[in-house]
Amino acid sequence: MASPTGRLGTDLEPGAVAAWRAHSQRLWGERFATPLDAFRHLGAVQSQEYQPSKLTPAMRTRPDADGQAFASVETVDDLIDKGAVVRTHVLRTTWHTVPVEDLRMMLAAGGERVRNLMGTNNRAWGLDDATLGRGAEVLAAATAGGRHLTREEASEALAAAGVADPTSTRLIHLLMHAELESAIVSGTPKGGKQTYANFDERVLAGSIAQDDAIRALAERFFASRGPATLKDFTRWATLKVSDAKAAVDGLGLQELRVGERVLYYTQEPPAERDSAPVVDFVQGFDEMICAYTDSKEFVLHHSVPRTRFPGRARFTSVILLDGQVIGSWKATPKKESVLIETWRVRGFTAAEIAALRRGADRLRAWYGKPEMELVLDHED
C-alpha cells in the first residue's frame, strides 16, 4: 500500500482503504490486552443487538483463555456488570456501549442534537417537555441510593409518581430522554435484563465544554476509524457540520484524497500484507460498517457491483472479506456445537473458502463449542 505523501496527495483503491481502517480499528494487527482497552480505543460501540455487540470489543482483544481466538464474552460481561462500561443512548438515537469515563464528554458533544431529533416522535406520542422533564426527575429519584431498576420497575415508578401511561413506546422515549438528560444510565443486569441506575452515582463527576467535547470526540473517531470523511464523523456523532468541521480543523489531522473524497487520519497506513485472503465474522452493527455512512463505497467489497448487494441482508451479522462486506451470517448455538449459516453475494475461490472456514472456527471458539456445522451459500 502506498504511503501518503502529505496533504491530499495519495489515491488508494477501496480495498486498501478498508484494510487501513481494519488496522486503525485494531480488528487486524496487534490486539488490545483487555476489552476495556478496546472500548476506550473505539469510544463507542453500537449495541442495539446486545449479545452480538459484545463481539466487537472481543475481536479486538487478545484471548483470555486457552483455545480462544480472542477475548471471551464473559470478560465483556464483567465490564458491564461492574459499570466500567455503560450501555445507553448516546451519539445517535440508538444504543451504544461506552467507557463510563467518556459518557459525559459524549453527551456534552451531541446530547442536545439527539434530543432535538427525538422531538417529532416525542410529540407524536404525546410527550411534551414538561412530561419528559418530570419523567427524568422521577427516574433519577427512583434509582438513587444504588437502586438498579428493570424497565418494568422503572415503569412502575413513573406510574406511581403520576406520569401518564409509562408503557410501550412512551416508556422507551421517557427512558431515552432521561438518559440524554444525565438522569439515568445502565446499571448491573438482573437475570439477563437491562437495568437503569442513577447517573451521578454511576458516572464519574466532571464537566466539559461542548467545543472541547466535540474536539475530543473527533480525535477519538479519526484515531480509531481513519481514514474517514468529515461527513462520516458528522453522521456518526450526530453533529452540525460546522461544529464537526471546526473540531477537525483544530486538530490538524492528516489528509488524503481518494477520488473526489477527502479522508482524515492519524494512524499511518499499515505495511503491505501478503495476498492471502482474510475473512472476519463481525456483528451486524460493528464499527467497520456503521462508522462510515458517507463513504460506503469503501465498505462494500470492491469485487462486486453495489447493485448486487441486497437492500436487506439475508442474516443480520456480516462477513468481511479483506475488510469489506461480502455477505452475512447467523449462528445458532446447540448443546455441543454451533450452527453457522453463511451467505455471500458471490462465490469464493478455494483460498477464500479456506479463510472463511478459519473465520468461522474463531467464531466457534467464541461461542465455547467444541464443534461447528458450517453452511455455505452464495448468490449465483
The helix count comes to: 16
Contiguous uncertain segments of 5+ residues: 1-9
Q: What is the distance, rounded to the nearest whole angstrom, between the alpha carbons of the first and last residues?
A: 32 Å
Give the rounded overall mean pLDDT. 94
**How would you describe the shape?**
globular
- Specify the structural class: alpha+beta
Name the helicity range.
40-55%
Reading the helices and strands in chain order gives HHEHHHEEHHHEHHEEHHHHEEEHEEEHE
Radius of gyration: 21 Å
Largest sheet: 5 strands, mixed
Organism: Glycomyces lechevalierae
InterPro entries: AlkZ-like (IPR009351)
GO molecular function: DNA binding
Keywords: DNA-binding
Short description:
The chain is of the alpha+beta class and 380 residues long. It contains 16 helices and 13 strands. α6 packs across α12 (210-225).
